[in-house]
Design brief:
Strand order of the largest sheet: 1-2-3-4-5-6-7-10
Order of helices and strands: HHEHEHEHHEHEHEHEEEHEHH
Shape: globular
Strand content: 15-25%
Radius of gyration: 17 Å
Helix content: 40-55%
CATH superfamily: Aldolase class I
Low-confidence stretches: none
Structural class: alpha/beta
Oligomer: single chain
Number of strands: 10
CATH topology: TIM Barrel
Number of helices: 12
Amino acid sequence: MDYRGRISKFQNPLSKKLFEIILEKETNLALSCDETKSERILELADTLGPKICLLKLHVDIIEDYTPDFPSQIKELSRKHNFLIFEDRKFADIGNTVMLQYQKGIYHIADWADIVNAHTVPGPGIIEGLREIAMNQSEPRGLILLAQMTPEGTLATGEYTRKSVEMARKYPDFVTGFIGSSKVSELEELRAIAGDDFVIMTPGVKLAAGGDAMGQRYSTPQDVVQAGSDVIIVGRGIYESDNPEKTAEEYRLAGYQT
């Protein structure tokens, strides 16, 4: 992908920052860290931080979460120059997501560079999140779930097109989309979105295939050639015998495609 040539197309400074990190570190790898212990998450973030552009978390699955965790993970993101993506998947009306984003025990807006949302509720969900994001001291970005990777997903076709239409109304906040790991669907999303948005793709493994839960996997080369900007890899890295070595394999496979 032409990361350098596309930076100027983005109105959202967070999108520009992401591409600058990708170019500087020569990595389009995002680590999806679904571990449930904070110590393990911090350990992986510190060890693998030099190899990733983005760390994706599910903060609500952390069993020993404390108010210190966000500052600890932010410190590591600054140390290793990666962004933090809280995979919250907001899916409610604008007023509710505003509270979920800003309040509660997690205060996501204070520390997550990027969050994501379903577009089922309509544009109000984007407007609610945007209102909070625009009052933060650092740039914030939103990823819309235009597609999903499991078999049987409803996030295809017209749903995908409507998601892109919504995004175009908020270019200062919407960073891009989650794209399918199915090559034909990913190519369709890139054609609709053009070069103005970042596409991130989960369901990536060095060997294509699937799992017992209906998750589909494509290779880094497959999804990057189909139009993905960021490959999201989870268990394939952190459950491997040597996560650092495996992360390097994914980094090379994704960035050098």
